[in-house]
Amino acid sequence: MATSRILGFVESRKNITGAACGVAGLALTFAGAAGPYWPAVVAGLYGAGALIAPPERPAPPDFPDPSAQLEEVRGDFGTLRAYLDGIELPPAAAGRLGELTGLLAALLDPGWAAELLARDPESLHVLSRTVRRDLPEAVDTFVRTRWWTRLAPGAQSPERHLERQLELLRKEAERLAAILREAEAGRQESHTRYLEDRGGAGERPGGIGV
Fold this sequence. Notes:
Elements: H1 2-10, H2 13-30, H3 38-52, H4 66-85, H5 91-108, H6 112-118, H7 121-151, H8 158-200
Helix pairs in contact: 2-3, 4-5, 4-6, 4-7, 5-8, 7-8
């Protein structure tokens, strides 16, 4: 630990700048300008150089890029589907779950949607939250509550809660798909305006203006 700190100081900007100024002090000494006080001159120049040196800038954390994050979510979705395949749900809830997982699969399938997600961290966060937390928690909570309800029936049906949760998650996924669709439509409109503006500038084929 001590060795690493020493090496870190030796390689630091403060030490390098101070050493450069100290070398300049030695040059003054050899030139006869420092006189008998050359040790103080060299030390003073070293200290001044260390003070004026820019501070060390810690390297930013190396987080995975959105494409790598998307690949991780895609792998987690495969794990989630394997889990869901082993859960027996009522027909109505199973139908809504199938609609939701089908939509999630389409969003995560490699292709145009995945390319848009990789450029939209907020949408990727929403999708990741659904896959990694919201959907598995909804199903797991239903399984636990249904077991207790069979022992002590309550007023509220756990099936109704699950159906409502799946419906809300499906609507959220549909909003996400709409956002991605609008982003692609906006890109198309921008390209149309660009072509219109270029045409309005009086360009002719071959780049010759009027």
